[in-house]
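Table S4 entry, Dihydrodipicolinate synthase family protein.
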Amino acid sequence: MTQIAGVFPVLPTPFTPEGPPDVAAFLRLADFALEAGVDGVVFPGMASEVETLSAEERAQMVAALGKHLGGRTTFVVGASHADPAQSAARAREGQAAGAVAAMIMAPPGCGQDVAQHVAFYRAVAEAAPGVVIMLQNAPAPNGAGLPPEKVAAIAAEVPAIRYVKEETLPCGQHVTRILAAATTLDGVMGGAGARFILDELARGACGTMPALELADAHVALWKAWQRGDRAEARRIYTLTLPLLAFQMTFRVRATKEVLKRRGLLTHTGARAAGPKLDEGDVAEIGELIATAKPAMTMHVP
C-alpha cells in the first residue's frame, strides 16, 4: 500500500452564504494544498466540521474531492461514526473515491475499555474488507483519550489498523510509547494542530495532520527536518506557533479567517460550535499572521 508520511492537512469545509457546502471553494482549497506540495490530504475530520455535515453532504464532498485529486496526492478519508456499520460505509465511500486509508475514531462511549474498542474496529474492518484503518486517538470529549499502551493493544488485535493519529497530551511522549509498544503499525502521525510537531518528529512520528491554513509552511518545515536542517525547522515552527496557539481556541473560524486573508477563501461562515471572533480577535489574528508571514512560501497576505 501507499506509505502515509509527511504533511497531510485536514481540509476545511467552506459554506456558501446561504448555508450549503461550497464545493467549488472546497476544491480550490484542495488546489492550494497541492500547490503547497503536501504529501496528502485528509477529509473529512474535526477541522472539516464533520459533525455538522449530513451523510449526503459528506458523500458528495468525498466523491468530488477524489475525482478532483485524480491520484495526484494521497487521500485519507475520515470515516468516524458511532455506528461501526456507518463508519464502514464512509470508509467504502472513501475507498471508491481513491482514498488509501480511513481515519476512524471510536465513539467516546467505548471509554477506556479495550475490548469495546477492539469490537468496534473489528466490526468496521469486517464490513469494509481491504480498508486500511488509521486509529484516531483524540482526547475527551470528542474521543476516549486512550493511553498509548491501550492504543497498541487495540492495534495488535485488529490487523486492519496500520496507522495511528495521536492527539492526546503529552503528544510527544505518547508517540514514543505507542511506537515502543506497537510492533504491528506502519506509523504514527502527529495531530493536535502541529503545535507539538518538532517533539513528535524527534520521537519518530511519520508526519503531521494539521489544519490547512499553513500548509506551505508545514511542508517547508517537513522538508527541512527530512534533510537534517533542524535549525530551519525550528525557525519555521517558532514563526507559526503563536498563530497555531490562537487557532487552538477558535478552531475552524481561525483557519477560515487566515485562508480568507491569504486570498484563498471568500466566505468564512462556519457551522461548528465554539467561540466566534470579535473585533479584538480580528486585530490579533492580523498580528499573528504577520508574525507567521516569513514562513509562508505562497499566497502571502
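Strands lie at 6-7, 40-43, 74-78, 101-104, 133-137, 161-166, 187-190, 207-208.
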